[in-house]
Amino acid sequence: MNKIQDNDVVTKTSQYKFWKHKADFAEINRRNFQIRIKEYFSLSTKKVTYLSLLLALEILMTIFSKFVMGLIPVSGFFVIELSFFVILIILLMSNLFYAMLILQAAIWIRLALGSEPVGLIAMTLVDGSYLLIFACLLFICKFLIARFSNDLKGNQKKVLVLTIIIGIVSALFAAAIGLLINYAFILELYGIDKSAKAGFYPIIVSLTFVKFIINLVLYLLTYKVVVTLITIYKI
Fold this sequence. Notes:
Blueprint (H helix, E strand, L loop, with lengths): L2 E4 L2 E4 L20 H9 L3 H23 L16 H10 L2 H13 L8 H32 L3 H38 L4 H4 L3 H32 L3
Antiparallel strand pairs: 1-2
Helix pairs in contact: 2-3, 3-4, 3-8, 4-5, 5-6, 6-8
């Protein structure tokens, strides 16, 4: 049986909990803490290449959302973005740190496309919150699964089901955060009169939720393909 040994920590390749070719960060424990942290931030040439391709795809989807979906804004300013699912793919392929970096870069690239800063501030807060909540909840669930189950295929099925549930829960939280920041200051920055603000709240909540559900569906449609590619090319 092949083994990987580093700093007196031995990991049997047959004992990976979520991937056939590597340990997931959720498999972190006291014995392998330094190794998992090192792996978390390390970037191979192969990973950089794939992340660059995904960043390019994210920018293309951003342009599509801006100039195609932007033709039909809701209530004059709300556009449903169809690019966030690429960020979820980046999260699956790498981790929260790099997914968040690319998310923020992709959001503020929109300035060059003519987007106004107020909308980008709102997107930074809402999209960043969804990504953070989604990644943290999924990590906690996978961490618990790794403690109690060694069934690779069973664990992969559990993660897929949890991805759906957590994706929906995260959308609810993101919608609530969107409501909160619009109540606090975003609508005022748009020049919306206080007396008219209440009329926007149902639209903000519903469309924020719908946006993330649509992107979650797009992500799930590509999930198995992405997982297969990650396994085949050992990303």
